[in-house]
Write a structure and sequence with these properties.
The structure holds two protein chains of two kinds.
Chain A lengths: L5 H22 L8 H34 L10 H24 L1 H7 L10 H4 L6 H4 L6 H6 L3 H16 L11 H6 L3 H7 L17 H6 L24 H18 L3 H9 L13 H14 L4 H6 L13
Chain B lengths: L12 H32 L10 H11 L7 E4 L6 E5 L2 E8 L2 E8 H5 L2 E3 L2 E5 L7 E5 L11
Antiparallel strand pairs in B: 1-2, 2-3, 3-4, 5-6, 6-7
Classes of the chains: A mainly alpha, B alpha+beta.
C-alpha cells in the first residue's frame, strides 16, 4: 500500500478527460473554452511542477519520517476509522494551507501560478506551482505524522485530494445536486474561487469538503447573475511559463528593496498580497470593501447590481 | 507524480540508472502528451470570441481594473488589439493576451515618450508579469491629444 500514488495513477485519466472536454466543447455540447497558448502554459506548468518537486521531495519525505519517529500514537494503516479520520484531518489541513496561500504573500508567490489563467478548464487544474517545496507549506501536514498517521498514508490522502480537485476545474458542469453542493467542493464552488470579481475574491478555499468554508466564513455561492471573470487581480500579459512561475517572487524581491523599515519588510513578505507601504496598491480585502461601498452608495442589492453592465468609471482620480 | 522515485533505502548504481531511464521515458511521454493536447486545443478553435476592442468594450474592461479612474481620452489600437487611455497624469493600457486582456497603469510621461516605430508603440512596463505593451497606431502621439 506504501507505493500507491493516486496522482501518478490518475495521469492517463487527466489526459483523457481534457481530450473529452475539448471534443465536447468543439461539438458545442458543453461549455468549454480553450486558448492554445494558455493551454500550453497550463500543461507546461504541470510538467515543470513535477520536475521541480523532485528537488525537495527527498527532504520533505525525510522530515515526515523524522516526525513520525516521534509520533504520539500508533495509527494502523489498515483500519477504516483511521482513513475516515485522515480524510477529515487532511482536508481541514488543506483548507488552511490554501487559505494561507491566498492571504499571505510569501505563500501566494508560490500559489499564484495556479490562478494566472484567464480560462477555467481541466488544463487549468494542472497549472501547478514550481516553488511549493521551497515555500514550505508542506510543513502544515507534518502534525498529521506527529499524531501518528504513517507518512505514506498522509501522502496517499494528499494525492486523493489532488485527484478529486482535478474534475472541479471545468465550466462543462453547471451545478451538482443540492445535497452534493452542500457538502462537497464542486465545479460551481471552485469557479468562484478562481474568479477575480471583487465579490468572489478569497472565497471557497476547500479541497474536497466545502463545509470548512461554511464553518470558517469564507463560503460564497456562484451567482447566475454574476458570471465569473477568471484570472488574478492584475492579469499577466505573458504566456511564458518561467515568467508565470517566478513573477510574484521577483515582484516581492523588488518590493523588499523599497522597504523603509523592518515592519515594511515583514509586511511585504507575510502581509496580505497587494499590501504596499505607500498604499498605492490594494489587498483583496480593500478591493472587496471598496466594491461593497460602491454597491451601498448605489443602493442596489448585490443580485440586482450583478444583472447590470460593468460599473462605468467614476469621476474621481484616486489610486487604484 | 514523480515522487515515487524517493523511497527509503539505498539504491545501487543499476537501480539509479533504471530510475533515470524511467524518468526520461516519463518526461518524454509527458512532453508528447502536452504537444498533442495543445494541438487539439488549436484545432478545436473554442477560445473566447475576441472580435477586437471597440470603445465601449475598452471602457468596460478598464472599468473592471480601474473602477475609480476616469478616462479622459481613449485610443483603440489597430484591429482592436489593445487600447491606451489617458487618465489625468496616468496612462491606462489594455494589452491583448491570447483571447483575453491584461490592464496596467503607468505614468502618462512614460506612455507618451515610449518608442514609436513602424506604426508600433512599444511601452516598456518593466514588470516580469507584463514586460511590455506593444500597440499598433497610425501615429503617435495622437493628433487629437488634449493639451
Amino acid at each position: 500500500m506504501d507505493d500507491i500514488d493516486p496522482v501518478g495513477l490518475a495521469v492517463p485519466f487527466f489526459i483523457l478527460a481534457i481530450v473529452l472536454e475539448l471534443l465536447l466543447g468543439r461539438l458545442g455540447w458543453v461549455r468549454a473554452r480553450y486558448e492554445p497558448k494558455d493551454t500550453f502554459t497550463s500543461l507546461a506548468m504541470g510538467l515543470g511542477s513535477s520536475v521541480a518537486g523532485l528537488a525537495t521531495a527527498g527532504a520533505i519525505f525525510a522530515a515526515s519520517l523524522w516526525v513520525y519517529q516521534h509520533r504520539l500514537f500508533d495509527i494502523p494503516m489498515t483500519a477504516v476509522w483511521a482513513w475516515v479520520l485522515i480524510f477529515l484531518l487532511e482536508d481541514k489541513t488543506y483548507y488552511w494551507f490554501h487559505r494561507l496561500s491566498h492571504e499571505r504573500r510569501f505563500w501566494w508567490a508560490s500559489h499564484i501560478n495556479h490562478h494566472t489563467s484567464q480560462h477555467y478548464n481541466l488544463s487549468t487544474a494542472l497549472r501547478q506551482t514550481w516553488t511549493g517545496g521551497v515555500a514550505g507549506t508542506w510543513l502544515l501536514w507534518l502534525p498529521l505524522s506527529l499524531i501518528g498517521f504513517p507518512p505514506a498514508m498522509v501522502a496517499i490522502q494528499k494525492g486523493v485530494s489532488l485527484v478529486y480537485q482535478f474534475w472541479i476545474h471545468t465550466e462543462a458542469i453547471g451545478k451538482m445536486p443540492r445535497w452534493f453542493e452542500a457538502v462537497f467542493n464542486t465545479p460551481s464552488h471552485h469557479r468562484v474561487h478562481h474568479a477575480r470579481n471583487p465579490r468572489y475574491l478569497d472565497r471557497n478555499y476547500a479541497g474536497i469538503l466545502i463545509i470548512w468554508d461554511r464553518m470558517f466564513g469564507t463560503f460564497q455561492v456562484e451567482l447566475e447573475t454574476e458570471p465569473c471573470r477568471y484570472g488574478v487581480v492584475k492579469n499577466l500579459a505573458t504566456f511564458n511559463p518561467l515568467r508565470v512561475a517566478f513573477h510574484e517572487w521577483t515582484a516581492m524581491g523588488r518590493d523588499l528593496l523599497k522597504a523603509r523599515s523592518l515592519r515594511d519588510f515583514a509586511l511585504y513578505v507575510i502581509g496580505p498580497p497587494g499590501w504596499s507601504h505607500d498604499g498605492s496598491r490594494e489587498t483583496s480585502r480593500q478591493i472587496r470593501a471598496r466594491w461593497a461601498a460602491a454597491q451601498g452608495k448605489e443602493s442596489v442589492s448585490p443580485e440586482a447590481k450583478a444583472e447590470t453592465a460593468p460599473t462605468p468609471a467614476a469621476h474621481s482620480n484616486s489610486p487604484a | 507524480m514523480l515522487d515515487r522515485a524517493f523511497s527509503p533505502g539505498d539504491r545501487g548504481w543499476g537501480e539509479e540508472s533504471a530510475v533515470d531511464k524511467a524518468f526520461l521515458i516519463q518526461f518524454t511521454g509527458s512532453m508528447a502528451a502536452v504537444a498533442v493536447l495543445v494541438g487539439l486545443a488549436a484545432w478545436a478553435r473554442i477560445g473566447r470570441p475576441s472580435p477586437g476592442l471597440d470603445e465601449a468594450r475598452a471602457r468596460d474592461l478598464l472599468a473592471e481594473d480601474f473602477p475609480d479612474w476616469r478616462v479622459d481620452q481613449l485610443w483603440i489600437a489597430r484591429e482592436g488589439r489593445g487600447a491606451l487611455a489617458r487618465s489625468g497624469a496616468c496612462a491606462l493600457v489594455l494589452i491583448q493576451v491570447g483571447d483575453g486582456y491584461a490592464a496596467r497603469r503607468l505614468s502618462w510621461c512614460q506612455a507618451s515618450s515610449a518608442m514609436f516605430r513602424n506604426g508600433l508603440l512599444d511601452i516598456r512596463l518593466d514588470e516580469m508579469a507584463a514586460p511590455r505593451a506593444v500597440l499598433a497606431f497610425d501615429n503617435w502621439p495622437p493628433k487629437d491629444l488634449a493639451a
